[in-house]
Amino acid sequence: MVTLDPTAVARWLAILHGDSPGHVHICSAGDWTGRTFPAAELDRAAAYVAALDASGREGIYARVTSVHGDFSPWKHGCGTTSPCGQPAEQCPSRIRGRGGAADSAALPALWADLDLAGPGHAEQDLPPDEDAGRAVIAASGLPEPTIWIHSGGGLYPIWLLDAPWLLEDGAALEAARSLAKDWQAVIEHAAAGKGWRYGRGVGDLARVLRIPGTVNRKEGLARPCRIVSAAPQRYTVAQLQEALAAARARIAPAAPVALAAVPAVSLGTVARPAGAISPGDDYAARVSWHEILEPVGWTEHYQQDGVTYWTRPGKSTGTSASTNALGTDRLHVFTTSAAPLEGNESYSKLGAFAALHHGGSHSAAARALAEAGYGTPLVSPAREQREALGDILGAPVPDPAPVPPPARVWTTELDVSNSAVAAEWLRNEAGRGKLAGLFRRGGVVVHTPREGDEGYVPLSDGDEDQDGPAQVREVDDSRLASRITYTYGVYKLVKVKEDWEPKPALFPKTAARTALDVPDMLPNLRVLKGVIHAPVFRPDGSLVEVPGYDPATGLLHLPDPGLHVPPVPDLPDEGHVRGAVQMLDEMLSGFPFLTDHYRANYVGALITPLLRAMAPPPYKLHAIEAHQPGSGKTLLANLSRWIHGGVFRAELPDDDAEMRKQITAILTVTTGIIAIFDNVGGHLKSSIMAGLLTSDRWDDRVLGSTSWATAKNDRLWTITGNNLSIGGDLPRRTLRTVIDPGMPNPERRTGFAIGDLEGWVKAHRGKLLHALITIVRAWVIAGMPMRDARTTDSYSRWVRMVDGIIAHAGIPGRFDDPSTQTEIGTDDDEWGDFLRAAYGAFGSATWTAKELLGKVNTGSLIEPGPIPAEALPGDLEAKLSRPGASMAGVSKSLGKWLRNRDGRWAGGLVSRHAGFDRTKTALWQIHSNATESDGVKP
Predict the structure, then answer these.
(1) SS3 for 190?
(2) In sequence order, what are the beta bridge partners of 104?
(3) Positive or negative CA dihedral for 123, 127, 133, 139?
(4) Which residue stretches belong to region Disordered (predicted)?
(5) Is the dihedral angle over the CA atoms 65, 68, 73, 77 positive or is it negative?
(6) Residues of the chain with pLDDT under 70
(7) Counting beta carbons within 10 angstroms of the beta carbon of residue 696, is it exposed (0 to 12), middle (13 to 18) or buried (19 or more)?
(8) Distance, CA of 10 to CA of 45 (rounded, Å)
């Protein structure tokens, strides 16, 4: 039975208002007037809470801000100017309440109020559980809360101040009001980005929150309001304001630099006069987001507090984007499936119009808007002055002679008088000289501006394109013709009188198209087999480390800016290898791998990108698993991406068409070898993914076209998930890494050797690559020793090479050991119910699956079992109730459930394999980390 905890009530009031000036306001559901108590007399406030609980109140609350001593919860009901002339509490139409923001004396903390799906919350799209609620705050970019409170139906993250903020004047009150309001707006934006709603109306300074230690009796249920975790950090007001500013900047970036005026196209036009409106500004003022988005298939999902949430084309519901977040007239796209709009990008109205209709070109969009009548027409101030002077003189003043444009420096270099001759010239020139940045990749021609006739052009920290994908682009006839036109002195011979004179010309697109149609017939066009951003080994064991094109492998090395890999010894000795392994051990010290074999799998996956030329892809799917959320699987996946480069997707597409589109986009647009899909849930059984993992080539039809795109499958595909359930043909094509902190709520662990692991890895990226290269080079120098083959499939050479490298380096465990492989798994929502029932029957004793089934209540009136049949997971209840059911068959099915859920915590309980009995039957045992308040009793 859930009852009031007076100690917890007193402790919370002291935490929140122990240092507050003024009075503490306590109220309850149905009586928001409540009572106030001097902050120095919190024991009286706690006694009042106990009295309210004794009367069975549905909810008991404390106001976050303390209030002035003359605080009165009464309000005039006869008008804002109290026409009755009486004090508020004597007004004939008085209204009771908890007061307003102006009654606040001090602010001790900031807060959030996250409703969770369940009883009392009829709204759709709420976060489903505590982990999801915590994920909202993590996604907001706001700092870690000092205290987390579970209200019984939701979560209160609390950010405690180091000292109460005294709201002594109007300026301080307005600053606090603005901070609290915008704090909630940032959290609302983060929730919407995950497809969930958040009630932003909880940001007023008169906000009341349930008191930890009290009972939430909403919907007739009795649930405790309690503190679930706490940390020592407190914040200054300045720190919270700075954190809010940083979070706001990510949502609503600074306005871009104003576009330059559209170039004049007729004589007599000049720049716009002061005060004129550009086409983009005029468009933004005159057109609503509904008029921009609805014609291209977007639909409004809902509106809240001035923010509109949208559903992308192709979906019937769900949050895909928002407009006017934080009061900005901008579109913020959450989804990565809204091409041509990009995920996690913020667009102005002009930017959205440019992306939707003009390939992202702001200047082209501005010209189109100007032609459609947007913006102030271009006017010449000089013409206005001449007209005024003409009025004075009584005669028109003639226009001055036009000023000729500056002469272009142009030399005759390339004759395109004959398109056939131009095509022949391009056939020989493509891939060398000034066109050395052209390559053949698959069946298309691509261009990289980092490779030219002078060799590799290194990136600098100031370059905009630093992500790899923007440096390699497919070219068409128009782009190629334009590049040649501006690179060479292109001309045509034109007959002038009796002579032929060269005149500037455009390179003919027909000649460009002729060459692009047959890239295999361009003799100097080099084959591009892949793009790398860090060194890799050639098949002969040498290292590709010089930037630029490597003829031996067909790889183009485009190192990231600032990356420096220390020189690796030509002949690494045991000391070098030992130091390299210690570097990896330091990075991985905080991850509790289930066994050494699982750790070896991760280290092997970390080594694999260095072997893409020695052991070419495809590779197995790398599945990084944990039993509990918060165990660190996403961080573990990102380590490899930060070291080698790659892409990250927050979710795996849930339908085949979207899956194919995502794979095609990753393989044709990006270049990093690591491709991560995070938080995969449900049952993964994908024929598309299974096919991808067995072929080094990917073919897919281009969206909206009958043509096909072909790309090299040169990635290490990675997924993360809790207790992953993998079926179909995927299990034997999956490499598993499993971590297990061995505790509930693993996200609360502290005391890691490296506090900021992300920052540490990025700062030590060059040294980590040096360590990995050292380990591989030592193996190469030793003659590439490998252990006996365990399989003969297409992955055998890769597995043997990685396993040999790990063994030579003395790293414990075997790569892709059979003990780390699994059969089909299963997801379930009933696991906690099953564990509680089993624990009630056996306590901490060991048992077999058959013994447990013997205690299931199958309806026998003679000796009903203590375990309800409905507590069995999956379809085991139905199997057991069938006439003539085989106990051995049901025991086998239960055994699979237990193996797949080995180590999975639920409700403070976990089942673990406990060896075998004398008949070689698996024994199981349940361990408890729960209290009776969790409803667990042996």
Answers:
(1) helix
(2) 67
(3) negative
(4) 450-470
(5) negative
(6) 70-98, 120-124, 199-201, 252-276, 336, 377-411, 449-472, 682, 701-707, 747-752, 823-830, 860-863, 930-938
(7) exposed
(8) 8
pLDDT of residue 828: 44
Closest CA to 109 of 17, 23, 245, 7: 17
Cα 449 to Cα 397, 431, 437, 528, distances in angstroms? 52, 12, 6, 14
Distances from the Cα of 69 to the Cαs of 23, 37, 72, in angstroms? 6, 9, 9
What distance in Å separates the CA atoms of residue 412 and residue 490, rounded to the nearest whole number?
Answer: 6
Which positions ≥6 away from 856 have C-beta within 8 Å? 865, 867, 868, 869, 872, 880
Distance of alpha carbon 907 from alpha carbon 333, whole angstroms: 37
What are 720's strand-pairing partners? 624
Quick one: pLDDT at residue 342? Answer: 77
Angle between helices 765-781 and 796-808 (to 10 degrees): 100
| Tokens found for residue 748 | 């609360």
| Residues 6 or more apart whose Cβ sits within 8 Å of residue 426 | 484, 511, 512, 514, 515, 522
Residue 37 one-letter amino acid:
F
Tell me the three state secondary structure of residue 237: helix
Q: Max alpha carbon distance in the chain (Å)?
A: 121
Q: Give the C-alpha separation, 831 to 847, whole Å.
A: 17
Q: Mind giving me the DSSP string for 299-357?
A: EEEEEETTEEEEE-TT-SSS--EEESGGG-S-EEE--S-STTSPTTEEE-HHHHHHHHH
Residue 246 parent element (H or E): helix 237-251
Backbone dihedral region for residue 370 (phi beyond 0: left; psi -120 to 50: alpha; all else: beta): alpha
Query: What is the Cα–Cα distance from 608 to 618, expressed in whole angstroms?
Result: 11
For the chain, report the end-to-end CA distance as a whole number of angstroms.
Answer: 17
Ramachandran quadrant class, 30 (left: phi over 0; alpha: psi -120 to 50; beta: rest): left
The C-alpha atoms of residue 96 and residue 105 are separated, in whole angstroms, by 20
- Tokens 């082209």 sit on residue: 364
- Residue 62 DSSP one-character state: E
Q: Both tokens of residue 837?
A: 């029932």
Which pTM does this prediction carry?
Answer: 0.47
Return the closest-CA partner of residue 599 out of 735, 485, 693: 735
Residue 884 is predicted with a pLDDT of 75
Q: Look at residue 452 in the predicted model and tell me its pLDDT.
A: 47
With contact defined as beta carbons under 8 Å apart, do 186 and 140 qualify? Answer: yes
Q: Which residues contact 584 (CB under 8 A, 6 or more apart)?
A: 603, 606, 768, 771, 772
CB 712 within 8 Å of CB 529: yes
DSSP 588-645: HTT--BSSHHHHHHHHHHHHGGGGTTTSPSP--EEEEEESSTTSSHHHHHHHHHHHH-
Amino acid of residue 905 = W
Q: Find the angle CA(879)-CA(881)-CA(887) to the nearest 5 degrees.
A: 60
Cis previous bond, 744, omega within 30: no
Q: Residue 150: what pLDDT?
A: 94
CA distance 63 to 206: 6
Half-sphere exposure at residue 192, Cβ-oriented, CA atoms within 13 angstroms: 30
Partnered with residue 913 across adjacent β-strands are 924
What pLDDT digit, counting tens, does each position of 809-843 carry?
Answer: 999 999 999 888 874 444 444 678 889 999 999 99
Length of the chain: 938
Encode 468-495: b = buried (16+ Cβ within 10 Å), e = exposed: bbebbeebebebbbebbbeebebbbbee
Question: d(Cα 271, Cα 266) in Å, to the nearest integer?
Answer: 12
Secondary structure class of 722 (helix, strand, coil): strand
Structure tokens at 346: 């913020």
Starting at the earlier edge strand, list the strands of the sheet with 909-916: 905-906, 909-916, 922-928
Q: Cα 224 to the chain's mean position, in Å? A: 33
902 contacts 911 by C-beta, under 8 angstroms: yes
Cis peptide before 21 (omega within 30 of 0): no
Q: What's the confidence (pLDDT) of residue 72?
A: 62
